[in-house]
From TrEMBL:
It is found in: Cytoplasm. The keyword Metal-binding applies. It comes from the Bacteria. Its main location: cytoplasm. Its cofactor is K(+); Mg(2+); Mn(2+). Keywords: Lyase, Manganese, Metal-binding, NAD, Oxidoreductase. Belongs to the isocitrate and isopropylmalate dehydrogenases family. This is D-malate dehydrogenase [decarboxylating].
């Protein structure tokens, strides 16, 4: 039987609940489809940091390299470990080391989910640059704590990095409805963002079938609320993509629905699948985290592994579940009830 090796990193807070829930669904889908998922769990988290002084062991990246994919819950427990330490110690190095430069985040309403907008028929795919830009980690602080303190955070945009993500956006748009929104703030940021706009225009000549529009990120944020149906594929830098995809999550009914795939398009290293949301300390331990974002991310993982039928069945099971009114609003149903309903829906397909 075909077996895929999956590294499981539940992480912190509700990461544990949603990974367990999604894994149950993934295993059920694999069994019916006739393949197996061999999960190996890693306890890397803020609790691990408190025990060992590291978010993952020194050879953590090398350990992960041999897996077919990585499935992650959430990282961060700011009450005990500063976010800049936990995220730069685990999640962000994985994205960078495995050149997962395309972070794919779909935003659409599952049936029966009431979003905050009047619009219902939007279907947006946000492509977020995932390895450089504002997240480069370059910078420093001088005169800390003094009146003349200065903090510098440098965004690094390379030709290679910008070209490949915009090209990825064009390819996605070509395969969908043929519309690409390229996002910058080139009216204020005159180096990196002008470079991004120029790259978009240059690549546009290779994709005459794609209608490309350059938006400023502020205007695009407003458009996502006022006219989400007018958007198809969005391509944005690391930070802008981060912010726009929490907005995307909001218009699709909440963070419990927003899935994400950190893809290494060249397949030179494993890709990583995780929900858009974090560890949700405010609801951790209450058993009410919505696992749908993580289940959806799991479907994206199966799709990436080539198990398209199983991925489609999971998406249908999610739609059946929300169609019955289960899990449609934050806190409405328990994680266990939603997971049971999705598994049950799978058996009816
Ligand atoms: P968050 O996404 O954890 O939570 C924001 C809000 O959304 C909270 O009210 C939370 O209860 C709600 N929410 C999130 N996921 C939900 C779900 N599945 N079901 C129902 N409600 C849900 O954002 P935050 O509070 O800013 O961050 C908490 C911690 O997580 C921080 O340490 C942050 O750095 C980290 N974080 C990690 C990731 C990641 O690992 N990819 C992503 C975002 C935030
Ligand atoms: C996300 C998260 C992370 C990011 C944080 C936790 C570093 O918000 O995956 O959207 O900004 O990439
Ligand atoms: Mn985010």
């Amino acid at each position: 039987m075909k077996t895929y090796s999956i590294a499981l990193i539940p992480g912190d807070g509700i990461g544990r609940d949603v990974v367990d829930a999604a894994w149950e669904v993934l295993e059920a889908a694999a069994e019916t489809a006739g393949f197996a998922l061999d999960g190996t769990e890693f306890p890397w988290s803020c609790a691990f940091y408190k025990e060992t002084g590291r978010m993952m062991p020194e050879d953590g990246i090398e350990t992960l390299r041999g897996f077919d994919a990585i499935f992650l819950g959430a990282v961060g427990w700011p009450k005990e470990v500063p976010d800049a330490v936990s995220l730069h110690g685990l999640l962000l190095p994985i994205r960078k080391a495995f050149v997962q430069y395309a972070n794919i985040r779909p935003h659409r309403l599952l049936p029966g989910v009431e979003g905050p907008l009047k619009a219902e028929n939007f279907d947006i795919l946000c492509i977020r640059e995932n390895t450089e830009g504002e997240y480069s980690g370059a910078g420093g602080r001088v005169h800390q704590g003094m009146d003349n303190e200065v903090a510098v955070e440098t965004s690094i945009f390379t030709r290679k990095g910008v070209e490949r993500i915009i090209r990825f956006g064009f390819e996605q748009a070509k395969a969908r409805r043929g519309k690409l929104a390229s996002v910058t703030k080139s009216n204020a940021q005159k180096y990196s963002m002008v470079f991004w706009d120029e790259t978009t225009q240059r690549l546009a000549t290779e994709y005459p079938e794609v209608e490309v529009t350059s938006y400023h990120v502020d205007a695009l944020a407003a458009r996502m609320v006022m006219a989400p149906e007018s958007l198809d594929v969005i391509v944005a830098s690391n930070l802008f993509g981060d912010i726009l995809t929490d907005l995307g999550a909001a218009i699709q009914g909440g963070l419990g629905f927003a899935a994400s795939a950190n893809i290494n398009p060249d397949r030179s290293a494993p890709s990583m699948f995780e929900p858009v949301h974090g560890s949700a300390p405010d609801i951790a331990g209450k058993g009410i985290a919505n696992p749908m974002a993580t289940v959806w991310s799991g479907a994206m993982m199966l799709e990436h592994l080539g198990e398209t039928q199983a991925a489609r069945r999971i998406m249908k099971a999610l739609a059946i579940t929300t169609g019955k009114g289960i899990g449609t609003a934050p806190g409405k149903d328990t994680t266990a009830k939603i997971t049971g309903a999705v598994k049950n829906a799978l058996t009816t397909l």
